[in-house]
Amino acid sequence: MKRKSLSTKMALILITVMLFLFLAVSALFTMSTLRTVEDSIRSQAVSTANYLASKIDGDEYKEFTEDSVENDAYWDIRNQLINVLNSTGVLYVYTLQADPSAVQIMIDGYAKGVEGAATIGQPTTGTTYNDVKAVLEGESVSTKVIDDPEFGRYLSAFSPIKASNGDIVGILAVDIAAENVKEIQSNLLKTTIPIVALLFFVIILILTIIFYIYTKRTFAPLGVVSEALGDFAEGKWTMASKKVGAIKFKSENEISALAKAFTASYKQLSATMNEITSQSNRISQSSTQLYGTIEETMETNRMINAHMVELAEGSAKSLQHSEESVTALEEMAIGIHKIADSGNDMTNTSNDVAEFISKGHEESKEVVIKIKDVQQMFHQTGTKVAELSNQSKQIQEITVVMTGIAEQTNLLALNAAIEAARAGEAGKGFAVVADEVRKLAEQSKRSAEEIRTLIDNFELVTNEVSDVMDATSAKVIEGTESVQEIGNMLERIVNRIAQINLEIQDNSAVTEEMSAGSEEILAAFEDIKGFARNTATQTIEVAESAAEQTKAMGTLEAMSGDLQKISQSLSELIEKFE
Q1: HEC profile for 393-423?
Q2: Confidence band (pLDDT; 50, 70, 90) for 290?
Q3: Is residue 570 domain-resident?
Q4: I need a labelling partner for 192 at 20 to 30 A (CA). Which of 43, 451, 495, 505 fits?
Q5: Domain that residue 13 falls in
């Protein structure tokens, strides 16, 4: 279906409005013409009534009305009315007397003996007091056209009859036939309506042509804007902008404002689309990088998870060996405790050792507190494994020293037994003591050997754990500072123990120091066992956390893939706009 232009529609609207206006004007003109013809006849009738009233002698008419009989005054006036009726062509001429109660015909213009002639005081049939009330006040009036079944169409005009002193003494009435009023009106309309219609047609035609040309020129840019909007809707932005830019406006109006607003909107939307394109490209690049990073992170998490499983198994073995070591140390402590009763100086020195080891234990607690996330917990595990290895070596050195001390004590006991034998009876008591000391020394030596065997086994387990830790040492190197601090403190402990060894060599209370040292070692192994248990628990928790993180990274990987698809769809959508 072909679309009509806006200018054509507006021209049709103008023609329709003008036609309605023509019909309205024609109706008003017809009514005015009809009223004008009637008013003209009424005006003529009033003029005739005024003229005839001025010809009647008012004083004579007043004389007649005083008696209201057919006297000379009556016949003079009647003859005058008869002459008027015969000479002017009026339908009827007569005089009236009116009051609110009745309106009466006094004299009419019919000849004597003529049928229908009125008698004096005969009531009127069509005239009322309201029709002549204004005449009694000095005005001349007329009625509308009356359509009477007996007399036909006519209208009446009334004029006051005045005496010489100006008093109104009667009313002169004239009835004028109105049968030809319709014919006059019809003829007048037939001659004027075509002229008016032709004039309106010419005016409508001229106005329509002028309006059509004006609107066509005015709304021509609107058609271009409409085409541009169609191109714009199809994504042909550049073509739409060129069409609107080519429009030349001769004046500033709503259409030019629309085109300018369209151009401004195009520029703003174009800038927005460029920004969207740029951001879409950035999102695409970022999502690609994110996808690659997630892949690498997931691979790393899988490796960490595998290592943490191995580490958890090693920690479990370490915990088992620690418990065995603690059991052996408890047995050794029982044996050493018997020797400890005879050494007071060794107790003081071992207290110093306990103080340093306690400081090392507190330092290890601080290191444990620093472990806050998976990576730090992993690093701390490696540090503690190294610490276990160092402490096992130190304990091994202590057992060597204890073995040496036991051998020296055995030699001393042997020498004491020899000296007691030389002393004879006086040395028997001393010989018994020396023999007990020798037995305790041998028992201490056996306990030390057992401890060294356990330490060797513990060292093997520690080495296995260290091998596992070495496989992932590159990922836990950040926690070495705290471990080094603990290592330094343990080194001071070793130095202090060396001093204790020197003191033990010079001190006769060797066994007491050994007892105190065994108790401290047992406490240290208890701490090691607790630490190993915590390490195993934490390692399992880290492994579970790593597994959960791997699942989360899988979800994030799927989301990253969806983001890539969305970014690609957005880019394809933007490419549709030229």
Answers
A1: HHHHHHHHHHHHHHHHHHHHHHHHHHHHHHH
A2: confident
A3: no
A4: 43
A5: 6-198
Residues near 201 by Cβ (< 8 Å), separated by ≥ 6? none
The pair of three-digit structure tokens given for residue 14, joined into one six-digit string: 């103008």
Give the CATH number for residue 77.
3.30.450.20
| CA distance linking residue 178 with residue 146, whole number of Å | 8
Quote the DSSP letter at residue 114.
-
Q: Which tens digits make up the pLDDT trace of 415-427? A: 888 887 887 777 7
Domain-embedded: residue 266: no
Q: Which of 151, 179, 198 is the last residue of a domain?
A: 198
Residue 247 in 3-state DSSP? coil
Task: Among 111-120, 133-142, 269-278, 305-314, name the most confident range.
Answer: 133-142
Task: Report how many domains make up the chain.
Answer: 2
- Claim to verify: residue 348 and residue 497 sit in the same structural domain: yes
498 & 359 share domain: yes
- Nearest 5°: the CA angle 203, 209, 210 is 90
* Furthest-apart CA atoms within the chain: distance in Å: 217
Residue 518 falls inside a structural domain: yes
Does residue 150 fall inside a structural domain?
yes
Sequence-distant (≥ 6) Cβ neighbours of residue 121 within 8 angstroms: 68, 97, 104, 105, 106
